[in-house]
Design a protein that fits this description.
alpha/beta, Rossmann fold, two-stranded parallel ribbon, 11 helices, 51% helix, globular
């Protein structure tokens, strides 16, 4: 695919305070893009914007708050004159199975990961149409790979993958391209929280096939994101070998595959449920906006 220069292009990223969002912001800035950093942690956003330089701006916003999101988009346009690219990256997850996970935390995952993406896209779409821009919806390998402990997260990422598929059809006549990003484990705070909180995690992923047993660096993931934005890619897989598993997703959901998964992960499920009960919370320490832990109620 032809690469499009990002020099002086305006890119709005949600969830850029940490992890993939922050690493992608740095990689985009190195290509000359101008960034609107939209997220919930003002101190981290301010520090990142200061690091990147005066060509960039940050705005505090919870993507589930439409008024705050509309304001952040309006201020982005006022600052930069328009928007060329949107990276709908803000996302959270929970610990534990449906049995032990906190219901409010589960619902919050859907609110942020699905409703937040819908709100972000809806708020920015007129500006993307004006510039025939590109939107990258951040999904996950969880969209097509069922793993115990990720019920709400997997549901949310499957949902936004289909949102991207439909949006791509709707926006073709307007010159707006739409991509979806699918990652396996990335070395983010979210994954580190799981490693710290759930004792069976590392033992479990070592038993998984191919790309599911790898933890990819943030820099490698960010470079893949930038490549997708430059080429206005339809889909992105990190690592690339994950694409083969997406192609056989019907097999991954078959009775045979799920029987294998149940057998391989039964000890992990039991240990994870014990860990979550002992932790007294169903989410990682670095999760933002997840409410109270069990022990605080």
């Amino acid at each position: 695919m032809m690469a499009h220069s990002l020099k002086d292009k305006v890119v709005l990223i949600t969830g850029p305070a940490r992890g993939i969002g922050a690493a992608t912001a740095r990689a985009l800035a190195s290509r000359g893009a101008r960034l609107s950093l939209v997220g919930m942690e003002p101190e981290l956003l301010a520090a990142l914007a200061a690091e990147l330089g005066p060509r960039h701006a940050w705005f505090t916003c919870d993507v589930t708050d439409q008024r705050a999101l509309d304001d952040a988009v309006a201020r982005t346009v006022a600052t930069f004159g328009g928007i060329d690219v949107v990276v709908a990256n803000a996302g959270i997850s929970t610990h534990g199975t449906m049995l032990v996970a906190d219901v409010e935390a589960l619902v919050r995952v859907i609110d942020v990961n699905v409703s937040g993406v819908i709100r972000t896209v809806k708020a920015t779409l007129p500006h993307l149409v004006a510039r025939q821009g590109y939107v990258l919806v951040v999904s996950s390998a969880a969209a097509f790979s069922a793993m115990p402990g990720l019920s709400a997260y997997a549901a949310s990422k499957a949902g936004v993958e289909q949102l991207a598929n439909v949006l791509r059809l709707e926006m073709a006549a307007h010159g707006v391209d739409v991509g979806s990003a699918h990652m396996s484990w990335i070395d983010t705070d979210l994954v580190r929280d799981v490693q710290a909180d759930l004792s069976a995690f590392n033992r479990t992923i070592a038993k998984l096939p191919g790309p599911y047993k790898r933890i990819t660096t943030l820099d490698a993931c960010a470079e893949a994101f930038v490549g997708a934005i430059e080429s206005r890619a339809r889909q992105l897989f990190v690592p690339k070998s994950l694409g083969r598993f997406s192609a056989i997703r019907q097999l991954l959901g078959s009775a045979f595959a799920q029987q294998f998964t149940r057998g391989a992960m039964a000890p992990m499920i039991e240990q994870t449920e014990r860990d979550v009960r002992e932790l007294g919370r169903g989410f990682g320490k670095t999760s933002v906006g997840m409410g109270q832990s069990f022990s605080e109620r």
